[in-house]
Amino acid sequence: MTADLKDRSVLITGASGGIGTAMAELFAAAGARLALIDITDPAPLAARLGARHRAWICDLSQPEDIARVSARVGTEMGIDVLINNAGLGIVAPAEQLSVEDWDRTQAVNLRAPWLMAAAALPFLKASGRGRIVNIASQAGMVAIAEHAAYGASKAGLIGLTKVLALEWARYGITVNAISPTVVETPMALVGWAGEKGARAKAEIPVGRFAKPAEIAHAAFYLASAQAGIVTGENMVLDGGYTIR
What we know:
The chain has 8 helices and 7 strands, in the order E-H-E-H-E-H-E-H-E-H-E-H-H-H-E. The chain has 244 residues and is an alpha/beta fold. It has a single domain, classed as Rossmann fold, CATH 3.40.50.720. Strands 3-2-1-4-5-6-7 form a 7-stranded parallel sheet, with helices on both faces. Helix 3 (63-77) runs parallel beside helix 4 (99-127) and helix 4 runs parallel beside helix 5. The radius of gyration is 17 Å and the shape is globular.
């Protein structure tokens, strides 16, 4: 799979975060050319990984930003693999959510992957073997308290994944999702610290959270030629949380 992804152009949104960085490091080590996208400048990450990688600042809640950046990436680098990794996690009791928080969550977690995929489609077609990987969540499959907006957005992303897989298979493009449990990123470790985190781990059969590298390797497989028969799937990486 390493040789298979050499010189492929891989666009990763949310590249500055823990999962995005793990993905970037893995794909760069395999010889891919990276387009790193984030609202926080990913240029330092691109520079650390090597001169062939590029970075763009993009606010995924703004459709015009998505159109501008995706056009530049496609024109300047091509797009063989699109990884919709960026996500917004605003948690609160359902009745306390503001309309603004709800709308921004849907914009970043659901509308942006749709817009990114649609903008990338001409380049994915030209690739001859396009791949889209959407990072969803276990919260899109089962109810988790205080995750009304987040869970709804991720359930929608899983549904979007299936529709795009159905519509675009004829172009040789596969579209899959990954649904992790809590992932040990710096932000998540703050939100799931102490007793709250201990209780959450106790509910996971394997007794721990996921590691960013585990999500990265799953995305790497789905981006590879060896996963060519896999499309419309939701790969659940939750330590058994949803099997009960």
